[in-house]
Amino acid sequence: MSTTASVPTRDESVARLGQLSDIARELLDRCRAAGASQAEVSCSQEHGLNVNVRMGAVETVESTRDRGIAVTVYFGKRKGSASTADLRDESLASTVEQACAIARHTEDDVASGLAERELMAQDLREFDGWHPWDVDADRALDIALACEQAGREQDARIENSDGASVGSSESLGVYANSHGFLGAERSTQHTIGCALIAGKGDQMQRDGWYTTAISADDLESAVSVGRRAAERAASRLAPRSLPTGEVPVLFEAEVARSLVGHLLGAVSGGALYRRASFLVDSVGTQLFPDWFSIEEDPFIARGFRSASFDSEGVATRASSLIDRGVLQRYVLGSYSARKLGLQTTANAGGVHNLRIKANAGNFDSMVRGMSRGLLVTELMGQGVNAVTGDYSRGAAGFWVEEGEVKFAVDGITIAGNLKKMFSAIEAVGTDVDPRSHIRCGSILVGRMTVAGE
């Protein structure tokens, strides 16, 4: 068990951001004095509390306090970077010297440099993302213990536990560059989770549940998390395999967003300029059914990835990624954009909040609508070929017959090709999983190969 100083209060965060901003300006001045033609600085500070319990006993209590300073300089088209966690003046000076020394000994890269000055964000806003949770270690442990106890008492078939956890974090960040841009951000995130084991011996099955949110007020109760974990674990008892064949596959919302993740990987600049994507030269191509769309919205209140600017200071904007099934653009930062002869899409550091359009009802109606097929609730392994789009992953879930869940399924593999899978999507549900920046309901793929017995 470890302890550190308490995390900053709500009011202290503004002062801390001011201190980080001052450090960023000082470092930019040092970079200019060292002869850099361009420079950028990122300063971050994080505070967190995490506790874990198992079988009614405390396992770990961890209080964290981290910070980091990263400096990148450009001498023409030569780039150098260095970082430190030490805020002493001599350490900051040394970090700038190291970055400059690296830049002077690297080769020119015509794509390097800051994003264009005219793209820098001007309207800097917050999106209700700062909600510190006034919870100390004792209170967090009480919540975790109540969560696990509720799950263990929910069903007599719950024989064991992998534990329950409570986590709370606060993050402060400043990005500044020699264009005169300086942006400060602050965010919080809180989580309660539980994993339980049902059955005995070689018949044991494990599953769990968690809730996560920007504000603790938006978390599910600890009791409901524990009970849902128990229900999920018990429902997986007595699993069967399936005969090999082709059937419809319904991806539960929690795993459905992984399909969107594969799309993002394929349309990201790094994969594209390396020609390591099955979607090279695909802008304007029909990839999905004509009702399908994905919108990026960086401006959602309490969104997990809401921001006025990306990690290069470029102003974010709401835009379509997929419109009527057609890929509208790639996902680019300034470097990958230059490598491709394009312009940044304000996605340095990744995408912001994504909304996937629904064309069907809630989860129960999705199951009824499938009538017969495989409901996938867990995916295992990393069997996805980014170059060809070939997809093969271990899976577990449930067999659906006549629109009803009949029995648990385990020990199978589902396979296909992502291009064909995207075009074969028949429905997206309204049962959006709120625990991610990818806001997606369950996804029904009309036909996939299921390899079992």
UniProtKB/TrEMBL annotation:
This is Metalloprotease PmbA. It comes from the Bacteria. Coiled coil: none annotated. Keywords: Hydrolase, Metalloprotease, Protease. GO terms for cellular component: cytosol. Residues 244-452 form the Metalloprotease TldD/E C-terminal domain. It comes from Noviluteimonas gilva. One of its GO terms (biological process) is proteolysis. Residues 39-103 form the Metalloprotease TldD/E N-terminal domain. Belongs to the peptidase U62 family. Residues 131-237 form the Metalloprotease TldD/E central domain. One of its GO terms (molecular function) is metallopeptidase activity. InterPro entries: Metalloprtase-TldD/E_C, Metalloprtase-TldD/E_cen_dom, Metalloprtase-TldD/E_N, PmbA, TldD/PmbA_N, TldD/PmbA_sf. The lineage of its organism: Bacteria, Pseudomonadati, Pseudomonadota, Gammaproteobacteria, Lysobacterales. PANTHER family: METALLOPROTEASE PMBA.
